[in-house]
Design brief:
The structure holds three protein chains of three kinds. Chain A is of the alpha+beta class. In chain A, 24% of the residues lie in helices and 36% in strands. In chain A, the strands form four sheets. Chain A has a six-stranded mixed sheet, with helices on both faces. Chain A has a five-stranded antiparallel sheet with strand order 13-12-11-14-20, with no helix packed on it. A five-stranded antiparallel sheet of chain A has the order 15-19-16-17-18, with no helix packed on it. Chain A is elongated, with a radius of gyration of 24 Å. Chain A starts with 5 loop residues before the first strand and ends in a 6-residue tail after the last strand. By secondary structure, chain B is mostly helical. Chain B has one domain: MetI-like (MetI-like fold, Orthogonal Bundle). Chain B has eleven helices and no strands. The model of chain C has no long low-confidence stretch (mean pLDDT 88). Chain C contains 15 helices and no strands. Chain C has a single domain, classed as MetI-like fold (Orthogonal Bundle). Classes of the chains: A alpha+beta, B mainly alpha, C mainly alpha. The interface between B and C is large, with 92 and 90 residues.
């Protein structure tokens, strides 16, 4: 992969605030035309990482590259990026059109060309009739679109978004997620956004970096990090997960048999005999079978109906288990039932404890 | 509402009326006295006359004191507002012990006994040989600076901190960010700060007591001297009324610009 | 981003404050530690005599006592009158409240000499009070109301009252009504709600009003002189007298005794009221 295809690169970047290490030795590469998200809980360093790309923070060590150019010493107003802020940060004393034109004005574009570019950008976010309004006259969703238009009209090398959908209600948020993605794909802009909402990250991104305590625990495509988490934290953060501890007692080809306190189970992989493992299985992959079948024995403790799926909370000798069952037909289980839990060997993932 | 609460409210309401009267009556008396046709003040006044205002403008020392006060106020307000604005912009986003200390320092002249400042400056000026007018101007600046600082600080802190960064993300350097984004949003704080500083400088007395010189007197000092040495008192009623009128105009101007709410909270 | 650019902003105001506020006051302190001199501003020898002499002289001690007494009375009056008024004002609907506060703010902008003059016109021998009382036949000869300590107290109190009212009213108006509602939900009637919830939570406003009134009382030279006359002098008048008599070290010492008093009172108020526990940390 040549450098020309990598729009953003962070090399061994570190940033502390006083005694708190916010970002600890982060390496990142973001390919042109993709959406990359930084996902993690509060305080994990994702916003700091974003601000390091922007230049609002300077790294204590390491370098930031935008389109191959080392921008570490360059202040934000001379870097080739634009940003959508969590509070939108629309200039209250300027109209919508003037807001959107601002970046073009800074770049010295002629007035007539500016007006045209602004019109096009507003049309893209479907706000053309509101060009002469002022930010305070707009709804939250409309303000968010103006912020977006203002950021994309300058055709930046990278578009940064800091929890851009956080202030919107659920339905609007889902709508905007789809619009954002289609907009990005249409324009081919490289985008980096920060979120703590794992669903959002999975929906929008081409690649996700899950962060915790200033470190990237795993980077990968949404499917990959969801189905094959490398650490317990990543498994737990991206959704509910079952964790089962056991020891490998037998192998046959690439299938291993694991002895757990709840019984025997099988998984794929190259773990050696005698190795202690912790396996993660997504609840939707944990099948519930009749008691006389094969699998780990467990008892149904609680049932929660959730519309399209039902959540079953189970108790096994090895600890609690969760299973999601689609409500495609009649549900046979009741509280107190004894069941057997089984899964396809490919569904189980062996977890490491370190970084990806 | 039960009887006790109604009684409480009525008591406090009448207390408010009494207190407000006590506070405003002395000022009202001065204004009434200024229009007195007699040589001395008599209440109730037998009629209304503008003779004392004419007399005020006839007297050379009164005219020049008035002119000096205006000139000083204009200069001091401008200088102190510029300095206060710089300080406010610096401290708007800063936290921590040093920032708190600086903020305390910039606000200190509000409560520091200005008479002691006057003595201290007099001593310093005597030692350095400072000429009267600049010395007086600097003293007025120190006294007036907290007002500009405070109102601009309130305006600057009310700004979304992301606004500046948004400007930078779009390519605006520090100067353009300030001129195009910050200033248009804080100008009300700057202007009302200027007006407050003007009012304060115009009425400043305690430092001027020591720092004025022969031929260089401010209006409040003239009024004070007349009062102390029993000069013709009614002409100073006219002088005082002029000052009051000026303040009414300026406070109304501030209210129009920033609205009552912002002024009160800035206090 | 904090660049050198941004840091340079503070230099002009800081220089101004350092040169013409901090430096002169420090210089004044330096002078207070020197001997008096007939020909120079101050003599060469260092001494604590200026301070010692003040406390050894019963005249000055009496003045200091009178100053503190006046300050205490004015503070007490302004609290007793000011708090109920502030409470009333804080409960007014927003527009009317703002108008009343503006009405109270306006006198603070009028120069103290003009406001003191108003009291002179009220209390003088030919003033409003005397002519009024005489015209209804209550007195035969004009009363000597002016040039006394009570005149200073009354005049200064009304001049400083708006500071107290505005401080407390702002604090009360900013109170979240939900605190009072929570108290009532727990069974506290109006009086106990006020005593246990409203009053303590208004402490920051009371503290700032108290400090303003105390500090301004100590330094209100013009009002004290005009209303007190030559026989009701307070500490601040002594400073002025010292300066006009060219006794610089003596005047300087008196000035710093005044400052020390102000500081001591400030710390006392803050320790008694502890506004910080309501305001919380930070900021």
């Amino acid at each position: 992969m040549s450098d020309a295809q990598i729009d953003v690169r962070l090399a061994a970047v570190r940033k502390s605030f006083g005694s708190v290490v916010a970002v600890h030795n982060v390496d990142l590469e973001i390919r042109r035309g993709t959406i990359f998200s930084l996902l993690g809980p509060s305080g994990c360093g994702k916003t700091t990482t974003l601000r390091l790309i922007a230049g609002f923070e300077r790294p204590d060590a390491g370098d930031v590259y935008i389109r191959g150019e080392r921008v570490t010493p360059i202040p934000p107003y001379r870097r080739n990026f634009s940003m959508v802020f969590q509070s939108y940060a629309l200039f209250p004393h300027l109209s919508v059109a003037e807001n959107v034109a601002f970046g073009l004005r800074m770049r010295g574009m002629a007035r007539s060309r500016r007006a045209e570019a602004v019109r096009d950008a507003l049309a893209l976010v479907k706000l053309d009739p509101l060009a002469d309004r002022y930010p305070r006259q707009l709804s939250g969703g409309q303000q968010q679109r103006v912020a977006l238009a203002r950021a994309i009209v300058v055709k930046p090398a990278v578009l940064l978004l800091d929890e851009p959908l956080g202030a919107l209600d659920k339905m609007l948020r889902e709508e905007m997620q789809i619009e954002l993605r289609s907009l990005q794909q249409r324009l081919g802009i490289t985008a980096v956004f920060v979120t703590h909402d794992q669903e959002e990250a999975l929906t929008l991104s081409d690649r996700v970096a899950v962060m915790r305590n200033g470190i990237i625990e795993q980077t990968g495509a949404p499917r990959e990090i969801y189905d094959r988490p490398r650490t317990e934290f990543v498994a737990g953060f991206l959704g509910a997960s079952n964790f089962i501890d056991g020891t490998v007692v037998a192998r046959e080809g690439d299938t291993a048999t694991v002895e757990t306190s709840a019984g025997r189970a099988s998984l794929r992989g190259d773990s050696a005999i005698g190795q202690r493992v912790r396996i993660a299985i997504r609840p939707e992959r944990l099948r519930m079978e009749r008691f006389d079948g094969a699998g780990l024995p467990a008892r149904v403790r609680d049932i929660v109906y959730r519309g399209p799926v039902t959540h079953f909370y189970l108790e096994s000798a090895g600890g609690p288990l969760i299973s999601y069952q689609q409500n495609a037909g009649a549900n046979e289980w009741a509280v107190g039932d004894q069941v057997r839990c089984a899964w396809d060997p490919e569904s189980a993932v062996v977890l490491g404890s370190g970084r990806a | 509402m039960n009887r006790a609460r109604v009684a409480g409210r009525t008591l406090r309401g009448s207390g408010t009326v009494i207190a407000t009267t006590l506070i405003l009556v002395p000022i009202a008396i001065v204004v009434v006295a200024a229009f007195s046709p007699e040589d001395y003040f008599e209440f109730p006044p037998p009629g209304l006359s503008g003779r004392w205002f004419v007399e005020f403008f006839r007297l050379e020392n009164m005219r020049s004191a008035f002119a000096l006060s205006v000139e000083l106020a204009l200069l001091a307000a401008t200088l102190s507002t510029v300095l206060g604005t710089l300080g406010a912009l610096f401290l708007a986003r800063r936290r921590g012990a040093v920032a708190a200390l600086l903020q305390g320092l910039f606000l200190a002249p509000l409560v520091f006994p200005t008479i002691i400042l006057g003595v201290a400056l007099l001593l310093l000026y005597k030692t350095l040989g400072m000429p009267v007018f600049p010395g007086l101007l600097l003293a007025h600046c120190i006294v007036a600076m907290p007002y500009g600082f405070r109102t601009v600080l309130a305006s600057a802190q009310a700004l979304d901190p992301a606004l500046e960064e948004a400007g930078q993300s779009l390519g605006a350097g520090p100067l353009r960010t300030f001129l195009l984004l910050t200033l248009p949003l804080i100008w009300q704080g700057v202007l009302s700060g200027w007006l407050f500083a003007f009012i304060v400088s115009f009425g400043e007395l305690n430092t001027a007591l020591f720092l004025t010189g022969p031929g260089v007197t401010t209006l409040p000092i003239e009024i004070f001297s007349y009062l102390q040495f029993q000069g013709s008192q009614l002409v100073i009623a006219a002088a005082s009324t002029l000052q009051i009128a000026l303040i009414v105009i300026l406070v109304t101007a501030i209210e129009r610009i920033v609205g009552i709410g912002r002024i009160i909270r800035a206090r | 981003m904090k660049s050198a650019w941004a840091s340079a902003l503070v230099v002009p105001p800081l220089a101004m404050t350092a040169l013409f506020f901090v430096a002169p006051v420090l210089y004044l302190f330096w002078v207070s530690l020197h001997e008096a001199s007939p020909s120079e501003l101050y003599g060469a020898a260092l001494t604590m005599q200026n301070y010692a002499a003040v406390f050894a002289d019963s005249f000055y001690v009496a003045i200091i006592r009178r100053t503190l007494a006046v300050a205490a009375v004015i503070l007490g009056l302004s609290l007793v009158i000011g708090y109920p008024v502030a409470y009333f004002v804080a409960l007014l609907p927003p527009r009317r409240r703002m108008l009343v506060l503006l009405l109270l703010l306006f006198p603070l902008m009028v120069s103290n000499v003009v406001r003191a003059y108003g009291w002179v016109a009220l209390l003088g021998r030919r003033g409003v009070v005397n002519t009024g009382l005489a015209s209804v036949g209550l007195i035969d000869a004009p009363l000597d109301l002016l040039y006394s300590t009570p005149a200073v107290v009354v005049g200064l109190m009304t001049i400083l009252l708006p500071y107290m009212i505005i401080s407390i009213a702002n604090a009360l108006a900013a109170l979240d009504t939900r605190y009072e509602e929570a108290a009532q939900a727990l069974g506290a009637g109006p009086v106990r709600t006020f005593l246990h919830v409203t009053l303590p939570l208004s402490t920051p406003g009371v503290a700032s009003g108290t400090l303003l009134v105390l500090l301004l009382t100590l330094s209100a030279y013009v009002t004290i002189t005009l209303l007190g006359g030559p026989r009701s002098k307070l500490l601040v008048s002594m400073i002025y007298d010292g300066v006009t008599a060219f006794q610089w070290p003596h005047a300087a010492a008196l000035a710093f005794i005044l400052l020390a008093l102000a500081l001591a009172l400030t710390m006392l108020v803050l320790a008694l009221l502890r506004p910080a526990r309501v305001q919380g940390t930070g900021r």
